[in-house]
Amino acid sequence: MMDLLLSLEQAGQNLLGAFWLPLWTLVKIMVIVGPLMGAVAYLTLAERKVIGWMQIRIGPNRVGYFGLLQPLADGIKLLMKEIIVPTGSNKFLFILGPIMALMPALAAWAVIPFNAELVLANVNAGLLYILAMTSLGVYGVIIAGWASNSKYAFLGCLRSAAQIVSYEIAMGFALVCVLMAAQSLNLGDIVNGQKGSYGLLNWYIVPLFPMFIVYLISGVAEANRAPFDVAEGESEIVAGFHVEYSGMTFALFFLAEYANMILIAFLTAIMFMGGWLSPLPFLPDSIVWLFGKVAFVLFLFLWFRATFPRYRYDQLMRLGWKVFIPLAIVWVVVVGAWMQTPLWVW
Amino acid sequence: MNFMDVVFYVFAALTVFAGMGVITARNPVNAALFLVLAFCSSAGIWMLLEAEFLAIVLVLVYVGAVMVLFLFVVMMLDINLVRLREGFWRWFPFGAGLAGLMVFEMIYVLGARQTSDTGGNVVHPANYSNTKELGRLLYTDYVYPFELAAVLLLLAMVAAIALTLRRRVGVKTQNVSDQVQVKAADRVRIVKYMQDGSTDTSAK
Asked: Is the peptide bond prior to A227 cis by the omega test (within 30 degrees of 0)?
């Protein structure tokens, strides 16, 4: 397989010369984004099915066997719908909003390693790049909320922006602990740092368990998922920042939300749960482990949504600023001190 | 002209365009968004200089945090375009003088740079990490200035909080610690109805 790829690359280089690199990169991007969009579509089905079962319902089962064609039907329905641009809105920014929501959610995938060789861009500052890209996600919400020229949308966007900016800090500090442990910003090196003869016990989830919890919960908040979905808050502000959107512009927000969920699941698996490394030392490392861990984290996301009631806004802010950020800062100091002692074995 | 030059000119043109947009946009929100574009394209230029740490931190800090808070404030302004354009010619000489001063400064600085030795383009090995080098410099040679800057920032943060924190008397706010410590038993009483119509309040 690897030889085939190499000879293909060689042939392309001879045939197209300087144009080969952009073309080949485009192909690689499609290979990542295509399955990602498929995963997003079927994550929506999984969400409805899982929450259905948790609430003793059946979930979608009409379109296709077992409801398997439901995401397709939803997609076609949204494509067919008219995109309504409100009269008082800022037309350019109104269209830019959903694009800005989806763009960072996809751009971050450039540095995600799938196994020891399979990565689009092996960047030294990969972790920083991820932090920068996820911090751009808030612009989609802000631009959409403001450009709609509607009070509900505006309120939703203010709430959401404050929430995302707050939880980003805790998330950043949790990742500072990871990079201290790994001594590298490269995501591939971070996974390799968790390699060892004890399997599961070598993962950073063991020394950094509080940070794992902080990262996971902040991730839920970053993705605007329940119980932190005050941005949408159906019962209070109708649907928050995307209340004026319809058709495909609306669908882009949902694509972005689910792509962000999958991204955070991947990052949690890579930073804390050893990425593609196997949990038991006698089993081989494989990309299957990575997908299994991601599926587990995604299931947690769905489980949270079916279990917890929405946070009140002041409670949400208190959790972020008065619990997570102090805890994360203390843990940075603890890890720093711990690493100076012989007790640090990771 | 090779590929890198093309990329540089694209980013440079974008930066200049966005900079012009910041000062010509009528709506402050558009101006702020142009500033975001200017930050992003200058991050691209820094990336070309192999300063990946600075480039990414520019996006992370300025675009991801500072400009978000900026937009927050600007979005809530009630904008009156007529009033904004009032007194343009009255302030024009002042603005033109300031602009002339800045142009002079730029020419002075850039002109001096061209005459001195910049050391040329340094070629780094593939495993060179800009982040690591910066970290080493900041925590060894420049540790005191770095710590001093950090203390100053902390001071400003504490001062900002102290200035805006007001404790007014007679305001009905929730007592957070009471709320956190509340138990289900304090709020909910479960009553069991018996068959004969009487109630049993001792049920848990």
From this structure: yes
